[in-house]
Amino acid sequence: MTNAYPLPPRPAFLGSAIGLLIIFLWCTHLAYLFTTFEPSNRQGAFILTAFFHLALQGWLTTGLFITAHDAMHGTVSRIKWLNHLIGAVASFLYAAMSYPMLRRNHFKHHEGPATPEDPDFNAASQNFFVWFGSFIWRYKTWSQIILMALLYNFFERVLGISEITIWLFWVIPSLWGSLQLFYFGTYLPHRLPLEPQMQPHRARSQAKNHLWSFFSCYFFGYHWEHHESPRTEWWRLWELKNLSLPKAQAK
């Protein structure tokens, strides 16, 4: 895959620096929550603070997958082994997922988006919950389930983290990230009906709003642009949007 709309060159280290920064922020924020944020006070101020941290950790969790996604396209680092190492680490931290499996399926998605051959598409039902359930089921593996169970017990029994803390800041953010990625990166862009302006990628794009696109899903809502130029890094998709390419906006 090549850049259909090449942008001005960027520093070679920048992609890996951004990927490592997301991983660092996710790890340090989780460590902070596990070591200093004990949910014993259930007053209003605590609830608001807990929700803020939960939302932030969910957004950072989404960023882990976006980092892994860019690594699949070889755009995190120009050093191949480093690129795939960062992708594998991000995939594991995201939900103990297999980076090679994700990579194989993602290339199948690009080969035939919104077709029965697309592993991310549900040709049998466009219902949001049915589609999301099949999406999660398709990507789960027994090794992932075992690893997640082992990590959960390690946090609780070895590190002494309370179960409510684990659920609030590790389990729920993982689900948050999955929903965010599915809604903005699969459901909105590829749901039926297909419209002529979605071709040739069978994909919609968010209306131009760079701030919303960044916070909603790391510019991944600019999905037509991603399919048009899959080797453009997530943090440069807004530049493609500014080129006013002929794309379908999600409604």
Radius of gyration: 19 Å
Query: Counting H and I runs of at least 4 residues, what is the number of helices?
Result: 10
List the secondary-structure elements in sequence, H or E.
HHHHHHHEHHHE
Q: Helix amount, in percent?
A: 55-70%
The CA-CA distance between the termini, in Å, is: 28 Å
What are the low-pLDDT stretches, counting only 5+ consecutive residues below 50? Answer: none
Strand content: under 5%
Spatial ordering of strands, largest sheet: 1-2
Beta strand count: 2
Structural class: mainly alpha
Mean pLDDT: 90
User: Given the C-alpha coordinates, what overall shape results?
Assistant: globular
- Give a quick account of the main beta sheet: strands, pairing sense, barrel closure: 2 strands, parallel
Indicate the topology.
Elements: H1 14-36, H2 44-72, H3 80-95, H4 99-111, H5 128-139, H6 142-158, H7 163-190, E1 204-205, H8 210-217, H9 223-228, H10 237-242, E2 248-249
Parallel strand pairs: 1-2
Helix pairs in contact: 1-2, 1-3, 2-3, 2-7, 5-7
Describe the model.
The chain is mainly α. It is built from 10 helices and 2 strands; from the N terminus they run αααααααβαααβ. The protein has helices at 14-36, 44-72, 80-95, 99-111, 128-139, 142-158, 163-190, 210-217, 223-228, 237-242; strands at residues 204-205, 248-249. The protein has a two-stranded parallel sheet. α2 (44-72) packs antiparallel against α3, α2 packs across α7 (163-190) and α5 (128-139) crosses α7 (163-190). It is globular, with a radius of gyration of 19 Å. The two termini are 28 Å apart.
